[in-house]
Design goal:
alpha/beta; 2 domains; 9 helices; binds adenosine-5'-triphosphate; binds magnesium ion
Length: 265
């Protein structure tokens, strides 16, 4: 361990997520080579690295989309393996991808409850409880995420990129069991104002105790929101640094390989 990693705020606590020796091969391509990753409750862990460094593959293994070729995963110190994304959700790990899995032709509330609709019983028949879904959607968006939509009765396609993303985040955080939220490039397609709002939202989820893992190419965003930074290069983790103890230049040089910590052999 380096002096920097020793001084993390997370020191002494048990990680919520612990990935060890994760290797992933796609045919002859080694996307990940013996990667370790720890993430703690109430922190934003940023994952940075050049194109093809293995960032998305790493979080897809964490969210049950891919199986590792080798390596182990622990949640709260207990070995865990996931066969699918729904296993991950059941274990409290979910992901939000830009523009993914949001149905444009549904309202925000319908999107929040897509696949897990609330029902009520009328004369012994199950019918959709639209009123309760709408109320819970408003509760999650307004109270938990601080997002005000002009109307809840619009189709999601009429919302801005940031608002659509908030709907996707609301769907993930609606599950009381959610512990770990993973976001791949959450601000990539957003304008400056919406980026600022999304960053604020990420920080408030962290302050609510969630573990937030964010992949980003924007070091400005990374320095604004993260507590620690996990740097990937060519499929390997080349270091984990505490955001408050590093700077843009140092992280950039780790990304391009001009500087490494002693985690790289
Ligand atoms: N499904 C796949 N089949 C084959 N190769 C893959 C697959 N997914 C990823 N790879 C390869 O694995 C490596 C890591 O890819 P990955 O998408 O994880 O990178 P990344 O760090 O997310 O890059 P970017 O910043 O461009 O999103 C790349 O060489 C990529 O081509
Ligand atoms: Mg990627």
């Amino acid at each position: 361990m380096t002096a920097t990693t020793l001084k993390t705020a997370a020191e002494g606590k048990q990680p919520v997520v612990s990935m060890r020796g994760i290797t992933k091969r796609f045919g002859g391509v080694v996307a990940l080579d013996e990667v370790d990753l720890d993430a703690y409750g109430g922190e934003v862990l940023a994952i940075v690295g050049d194109n093809g460094a293995g960032k998305s593959t790493l979080i897809k293994i964490l969210t049950g989309v891919y199986q590792p070729t080798k390596g182990t995963l622990e949640l709260d110190g207990k070995p865990f393996s996931m066969a699918s994304h729904s296993d991950a959700i059941a274990a409290g790990v979910d992901a939000v991808y830009q523009n993914l899995a949001i149905a444009d032709h549904l309202t925000p509330a319908e999107n929040l409850f897509l696949g897990s609709e609330l029902t009520r019983s009328v004369l012994g028949f199950k019918v959709l409880d639209n009123k309760r879904m709408r109320k819970e959607a408003v509760d999650t968006l307004n109270n938990r995420l601080g997002v005000q939509l002009k109307s809840m009765d619009v189709l999601t396609e009429s919302l801005s990129g940031g608002q659509r993303q908030a709907v996707a985040i609301a769907r993930a955080v609606r599950h009381d069991t959610l512990r770990v939220l993973v976001m791949d490039e959450p601000t990539a397609a957003l304008g400056p104002q919406e980026t600022a709002r999304t960053l604020q939202l990420i920080k408030s989820l962290r302050d609510q105790g969630l573990t937030v893992i964010v992949i980003s190419h924007s070091l400005d965003d990374v320095f604004e929101i993260s507590d620690r930074i996990h740097v990937q290069r060519r499929g390997r983790c080349v270091g984990v640094v505490t955001t408050a103890q590093t700077n843009n230049e140092e992280v950039l040089s780790m990304i391009v390989g001009a500087k490494t910590t002693d985690q790289e052999h």
